[in-house]
């Protein structure tokens, strides 16, 4: 019997649906009953993570803790957050619940170190809150890696907020590809999609260097944990 | 403030994700916070509806009632089922909860009668359990309409179970288009995708006659109810 996953979602909703689709695709299944039980709280009203870290808005801590408690009450055997930035409040979630939180940050950093040990300069595509909370930079620096950030963070954020408003069109995809290309021109040997909206605009095939997708890394970790 | 939707899902999981994506696309939104709160219990272990109606398997009634209670406890203001066949147990769900169940059957029949009043012969693509429980035939007959069923119901069911196992490839799409074409050759003036797996293989553009998609009909009803 597999174990149930509780997903804190809605940040944004399209990224949550993308993650669910990938969990389903990553689960070996010959029919419905082989798939994993997923409890999903797709809550788009969680206070904005970027505004909160910047001191311009309410903290999402209480909302995230309440969602986590609700998912545990539903029967989730483990929790995950379909938003990298919201991991800045991972300790609030852990304090509110008794089941393990499978961290997207941990899964992604482990994937980088395991699958791309020769890459030294890591291009990091992450939202403001994720960068400001040092979620990826600290473990990557601790592993002796150098981080390359985009020179156009505000253009990047405009694309991320565009996805949340439903814009995944050609212009947005072209713009995200340009940001990725510039990262490579600035020395990145690997690109990390460290925001769950990024893969809605940029696929591995669009990247001129190896591409590590945080959504995929978390999905692999969740499916392994739920089926072991 | 919009109201929260509780979705009984996992029957199958891909169809649930499809419905969520369409709820998000159908919601007017300029950012995360304009989207609807969705509580989803994606439970692929609900006993098989087709086996149950045929007397070859356990009833899903208790599982569906428990899911509905859990979603109401989470905060759902209304419930919906992302599976047409499971509506055979709609009364068990209603008896277990105090919030309204927005019926996919009712929404779809209303869409047919409202948008296609001149069509008399309705081609019905539905799973065995849905047909055996007379979920669509009764209201359509009551409205004076004639029902056209596929001559290859077992081939149709093979395609549906294929989707649940992850097969949405070209061969499956071609086969579902052939079943739709045969329905039209047999006199159908309109095709109803009355199984949530059908739109994963057949789009409106593939249908030689007007196409009413039960998933879409439910999504429109839910978004209207949640935002009114």
CATH fold-level label of the largest domain in chain A: Rossmann fold
Q: How many distinct domains of chain A?
A: 2
Radius of gyration of chain A: 17 Å
- pLDDT < 50 stretches of chain A: none
Largest interface, Cβ cutoff 8 Å: A-B, 38 and 38 residues
| Molecular shape of chain A | globular
- CATH class (first level) name of the largest domain in chain A: Alpha Beta
Order of helices and strands of chain A: EHEHHEHHEHHEHHEEH
Q: By helix and strand content of chain A, what is the structural category?
A: alpha/beta
Q: What oligomeric state do the depicted chains represent?
A: homodimer
Distance between the termini of chain A: 9 Å
Main β-sheet of chain A, in a few words?
4 strands, parallel
Number of contiguous helices of chain A: 10
Strand content of chain A: 5-15%
Q: Strand order across the biggest sheet of chain A?
A: 5-4-6-7
CATH structural architecture of the largest domain in chain A? 3-Layer(aba) Sandwich
